[in-house]
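Write out this protein's structure.
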Amino acid sequence: MVKIAIIGAGVNGLTCALKIKEKYSDFDVTIFSEEFTPNTTGDGSGGLWYPYLCGSTSQENLTKWGSETYRFLHDLWYTGGYHISLIPIYELYRDKREVLRPRWADLVFGYRELDMRQLDHLSRMHSINYAAGRTFTTFVIQAPKLLDYLYKRYKAANGKVVKAKLSSLSDPLLMAYHVVVNCTGVGARQLVPDDRVFPIRGQIVKVKAPWLNYTIVDEDSGHYVIPNDALCVLGGTHQEHDYRRELDDENKDFIVKGCKQMIPGLKYAELIQHWAGLRPGRDEVRLETEERGGKVYIHNYGHGGSGLTLFWGCGDSVVELLGESLSSIKPSDITSKL
């Protein structure tokens, strides 16, 4: 029996494990992780489909992985019951600039650059002078609900989980596995090790504001407001090389004051939670195969702020790489490790 280990139980780790187990039902698939939902970084995220903090990841890959994820979320939204919202997003700039049309614009609903009439309207609504921007329709997820869905679907396919903190890619717990899929996020910096990985600290505020039905992102101030079907996420920070997980009072004030400037009605919102986590920054997403000591490793990390934008498409690519790698696993390798 082919044995596959997945390291990491965030949205990328769960997706890779699920896709492998559903395609190769007779494989032994095990997730190793120190934390599982609802305690992963992804559980605290804003849950917005929106390419964000991806470094220099190619437009080709962003479009491929993002489009597959967008379609997957559309199917779940259309089915209903998965706490996924389909809402407009306005990405706005205070300084005049040319808003370049990305390749992924063709895969989303209603993409367009905003004209001056629309910008004037938004400026009056939000008491800020916006000079450029774009809009499209996107998906907002309750991240813990999605992660729970993926986890339960994986377990229903007889997938295994082990709660453990691994010391390296050659950890003794991985010795019996033929393929290791590395979805460790920020942890890849030490585990691989890969010094191109760095934390991007994000602090947010979660409130109840049920009257809001669109997302707004102020690119120049760094503020955003992302409502879903249960709460509203106010943000935020993107502090590179900052390892702090504790809350920062100055960040709290920055987020709340900035978001209230955009939407004064937020003064009536009920506070639910302040939260901080570390996004896995990298100059580009790493999704590739590596061979070390006769073992196959498939790396899938460095998604920045786009884990919930790219996860389903990245999972498809991991399964493709696994299929290409299976021919390198000799029958003797399998029997010797059973």
